[in-house]
Amino acid sequence: MAEMGFRTEIQRSWNNLPKSARGFLKEWVLPLGLAVVVAFLFRTTIASPRHIPTGSMVPTIKIGEFIFVKMYSYDLHIPFTRHKWIHRNDPQRGDIVVFEYPNDRSKDFIKRVIGIPGDIVEVRNKRVWLNGTALRLDPIEDTDTLLDAGKEYHPDHMSLFREHLGDRSYIVAHSHLRAPRNAGPIEVPEGSFFVIGDNRDDSSDSREWGVVPRDYLLGQGSFIWFSFDRRNFPFLRWNRFFTTLR
Questions:
Q1: Which stretches does DSSP call E strand in 24-149?
Q2: Which whole-number Å values give the CA distances from 36 to 68, 154, 224, in the listed order?
Q3: What is the CATH number of the domain that holds 50?
Q4: Cystine design at 86: which of 32, 76, 81, 120 (Cβ 3.0–4.6 Å)?
């Protein structure tokens, strides 16, 4: 009875509104509200747009780029929250992952997974060693990859390499201006992952603050949907639009 009375009161309040107000609500407010709910549902469960303001993943992701993160790659999330509902998969070596920063969970970081549970990871003299074997590095000549990433990433200051991790490979950057950042060896604990930025000398990652707990993972980097370069006219990197992250 109380519910029927409540609905009757709502209907009475609606009928008391001026006709113009009812029309405005039907035509604009309700559809807009529904669109906001659907967009937020999409963002928390399917794909989340993110802006990348730093250079820790250069050259894979450049400063100022916008990416989509697949929120369902590793877990299904409870709508409108970050809480996990169903565990689907675990990250593999080479995945680009978005996660809550272990030292401040209000901040989200993006890095590449190098070590999975049970792996022994060491970084020595700018080389990554995985389970006692150095990852292969092939020098590459690709100055265009760096030129629009900022003057600090000019080819005169950096070298690019293709790093091979199992059956996957990707480009990493090494600075000529910074000393090696060594770490480990460390055995990755169960339920954790060792992550590093592709810009090896300008990244805060597992070498500095340790492994990422599985529960802190949010999703997997999918593709670049917008690329903006405020330093160089015409400011848009058209060739970077809709680039798949590998």
A1: 47-52, 65-70, 75-77, 84-87, 96-100, 108-115, 120-124, 127-130, 133-134, 136-140
A2: 18, 42, 23
A3: 2.10.109.10
A4: 76
User: Quick one: tokens of 115?
Assistant: 């070590």
- Alpha-carbon distances of 92 from 31, 36, 39, 87, 111, rounded to whole Å: 41, 34, 29, 15, 13
Catalytic residue numbers read 56, 111
Question: Helix, strand or coil for residue 166?
Answer: coil
The 10 Å Cβ neighbour count of residue 101 is: 14
Q: What is the tally of structural domains in the chain?
A: 1
Cα 209-68-39 angle, rounded to 5 deg? 115
Cα gap 36→153, rounded to integer Å: 39
Residue 39 in any domain: the answer is no
Look up tokens 């480990």; give the residue.
Answer: 184
How many CA atoms does the CB half-sphere of 201 hold within 13 Å? 17
Tell me if 165 is assigned to some domain: yes
Q: What is the pLDDT along the chain (246 residues), one digit of tens a residue?
A: 444 444 555 556 546 656 665 555 565 556 666 655 655 555 566 678 899 999 999 999 998 899 999 988 898 877 767 777 888 899 999 999 999 999 999 999 999 999 999 999 999 999 999 999 999 999 988 666 665 555 556 677 888 999 999 999 999 999 888 888 899 899 999 999 999 999 999 999 999 999 999 999 999 999 999 998 777 767 788 889 999 999
> Domain for residue 37, yes or no?
no
Return the bridge partners of 193, or none.
Answer: 212
Range of 224's domain?
46-244
Beta bridge partners of 99: 109, 217
